[in-house]
Amino acid sequence: MKSNSLIACLLVATGLSTASFVVQAGDTPQETVQPSTINTRDLKEGDRAPDILMRKESAISDWKKRGLKQPEADSQWARVGDKFVLLKTTNGTILEITPVKK
User: Fold this and answer.
1) 3-state secondary structure of 82
2) pLDDT in tens, 14-43
3) In contact, 65 and 77? CB cutoff 8 Å
4) Contact 49, 87 (CB under 8 A)
5) What is d(CA 34, CA 42) in angstroms, rounded to the nearest whole number?
6) For the chain, which residues make up each domain, given as ranges?
């Protein structure tokens, strides 16, 4: 009788441990979507710029050398493809778009 109880307990314990492995194996990690480096929609003056353009590392520091006007204290120039974009860093509004001079 004791051996039957022991075998039954072992079978239950084995079944429970196997079931937990099955549950863990069934949980697949969710696919992640990498954000694009810049929003690809057409931007125009008055639009809100993508957040990446408002970062300090996106700012063009040699704006004078490139023939651009001096940005105000709360704005900066950033490059998007073949255009320079002047935007307000406080709210992301695009103030001006200028083509890159070659």
Assistant:
1) coil
2) 666 555 554 555 554 445 444 445 555 678
3) no
4) yes
5) 20
6) 51-99
Q: Percent of the chain at pLDDT above 70?
A: 64
Residues 6+ away with beta carbon under 8 Å from 87: 49, 53, 54, 75, 76, 78, 93, 94, 95
The top-level CATH class assigned to 51-99 is alpha beta
**DSSP reduced 3-state for 60:** coil
What count of other Cβ atoms lies within 10 Å of the Cβ of residue 93? 15
Residue 11 exposure: Cα atoms within 13 Å on the Cβ side: 6
Helix or strand run (H / E) with residue 40? none
Which residue is listed with tokens 């079978």? 11
Residue type, 35: P
Length of the chain measured in residues: 102
Q: What is the pLDDT of residues 51-65, one digit of tens each?
A: 888 899 999 999 999
